[in-house]
Design brief:
The chain is an alpha/beta fold and 256 residues long. It has one domain. It is 34% helix and 25% strand. It has 7 helices and 8 strands. It has a 6-stranded mixed beta sheet. Strands 1-2 form a two-stranded antiparallel ribbon. Strand 4 and strand 5 form a beta hairpin. The chain is globular, with a radius of gyration of 19 Å. The two termini are 26 Å apart.
Length: 256
């Protein structure tokens, strides 16, 4: 798989800025901020979402990571839907990584992703936008909070608060009509904000333990979420949490 080949290339890569060239870090990790030029980390997020999609659908297809032109959704997969009427639809997940908390930038990335889903090139029937917040999160405040987290729930809530703030920033002083035009076609609500980080938690005994945090948080984008999309979002987050626990799935059971 081309995405896996990028792992071997996660090193310092030259980036041209005018007449000078600088070296910027490329990484596969999703729990630290690495800035706007880390294309490898963005592609790893696409691979990760594709793996989650494989837990709830079939015929998963990822856009090529090295020669794509950025106008096609990153993940396509088939879902057998059973709400109201039994049918199989092809879903698209358009993933955008942000490195700022600017509400206008967040909105523009959501807009770009929705346009990819609505494009005639997109072979899906319907799709959702995912905003990867890895480089917009305040990871330091999660690792070194003002007061130590008492448990995992407190840490998850702190991560969730940062993700909610990104949605509120995009919505601030924005006319609802701007949101409505994004979701008139194949792109549907909710938008999913993905956050991954690390915290220190007190174990029952001994020293603090580094603990990974992962969360897919739905954002209604000044509207109401599509029922099927909302259910898929919940499943994606559920599998994200289950896999984090380290108990793999098998032929007769999902990861847990």
């Amino acid at each position: 798989m081309p995405h896996l080949e990028l792992i071997a290339c996660a090193k310092f890569l030259p980036v041209s800025r005018g007449e000078e060239k600088k070296l910027v870090p490329a990484s596969i990790g999703q729990n630290v901020a690495t800035g706007p030029f880390d294309d490898t980390a963005r592609k790893m997020a696409e691979l990760y979402i594709g793996c989650l999609a494989a837990c709830i659908g079939t015929n998963v297809e990822l856009d090529r990571p090295t020669n794509s032109i950025g106008d096609n959704p990153d993940v396509l997969f088939d879902v057998e839907e059973t709400q109201h009427i039994s049918r199989i639809r092809r879903w698209a997940l358009a993933i955008k990584t942000i490195s700022t908390t600017s509400g206008q930038t967040v909105f523009e990335r959501i807009e770009e992703a929705a346009q990819q889903i609505d494009s005639p090139r997109c072979k899906a029937d319907v799709g959702m936008v995912i905003i990867n917040a890895k480089s917009a999160l305040d990871h330091d405040s999660l690792w070194n909070p003002p007061a130590p987290f008492a448990n995992l729930g407190e840490a998850v809530n702190a991560l969730g608060s940062q993700l909610k703030a990104l949605g509120k920033a995009a919505e601030k002083d924005r006319n609802p009509s701007e949101w409505e035009r994004l979701f008139r076609g194949k792109a549907v609500r909710p938008v999913l904000f993905m956050g991954q980080s690390a915290v220190r938690l007190p174990p029952p005994a001994g020293a603090e333990t580094a603990t990974a945090l992962k969360l897919l948080m739905p954002y209604e984008a000044a509207g109401t979420g599509d029922p099927v999309a909302t259910a898929l979002a919940e499943l994606l987050n559920s599998h994200m949490q289950n896999i984090l626990l380290g108990i793999p799935g098998g032929p007769d059971h999902a990861p847990r």
